[in-house]
Amino acid sequence: MSSEKIYIEKNSVQETLIIPLYGRKMCSEKFPELYTDAFAKRLCDSLDYDFSELDKKSNSFLYEFGALEAAMRQLDMIWEIKNYLKNHPKATVVNLGCGLDDTGKACDNGFCRIVNIDLPDVISVRKQLIVEQDREKSVAYDLKDYSWMNEVDGSEGVIFFAAGVFHYFKTDEVKSLVLELSKRYPGGCLVFDTVGKLGLRLMMATSIKNMGINKVDGLFYVNNPAQDLNWSENIKLTSKAYMLGYYDMKNPGIRFFHRLLARLADKLIKMSINKMDFK
Ligand SMILES: C[S@@+](CC[C@H](N)C(=O)[O-])C[C@H]1O[C@@H](n2cnc3c(N)ncnc32)[C@H](O)[C@@H]1O
What we know:
Layout (H helix, E strand, L loop, with lengths): L5 E2 L10 H13 L9 H6 L1 E2 L3 H6 L3 H27 L4 E5 L6 H4 L6 E6 L1 H10 L6 E5 L17 E5 L8 H14 L4 E6 L2 H9 L1 H4 L14 H4 L6 E7 L14 H13 L3 E7 L1
Parallel strand pairs: 1-2, 3-4, 3-6, 4-5, 6-7
Antiparallel strand pairs: 7-9, 8-9
Helix pairs in contact: 1-4
The structure holds S-adenosylmethionine.
The site of S-adenosylmethionine has 21 residues, from helix 1.
């Protein structure tokens, strides 16, 4: 692992990995009873990236809420992965658009395999900062080019998860990827988060714009998962509320207004965690 700081390119899709990484670091510091990501602080410290704007806002209520969003999403994903591994202990756990997220390791049961996939520049940063363990590999691909699927053995079961990734895809691209996965991996499962149209507009107008990112045109939003994601008879869909669908967030430091906003985010912004089981 290098001791030199690693540069993150501004105004790139790659830069979007900073948002959830910083959120996980903040959440680990502010709400450790809810969520701890042991590596997020070390990873932030290892990056050549100006966090001062984010640091300045880190005590504001809305930024605290943003940190909770990042943590809840990861906790929800971990819940689904561990649940799948109960019945498929040797499954492959695939982190789609992994950024610098180490959820695979957090779910490791000693038997599963872990594959982390992201664009080449991100995987290059990841490999310099995060050590791969046994049964784990990180590979560089564009998810829209399905040759990455040759890296994923689903013979003992497979669970794919995409945290904060499909907002940067067009609806047709997500649909086509999902249908391809359902064809290739019967018995497999995909978990991903979505927001409704209003949520996507807010994301583009706030967090992402604040970071000066202007190249990401996220077009995939889901107002009503049961209707909007009804793509194939071979897919069984289950959707839960993102903020409060898995945990009640009744933890020290989490205020009544955080939970109220969480409820509003789930209801109005339509934040969901969607699980697709491939028949
Ligand atoms: C908001 S970040 C989320 C990172 C990580 N999932 C997390 O929760 O910290 C979005 C990630 O998706 C990756 N990504 C976006 N489009 C991609 C594509 N076409 N192929 C592979 N990765 C992609 C980005 O490089 C970035 O790392």
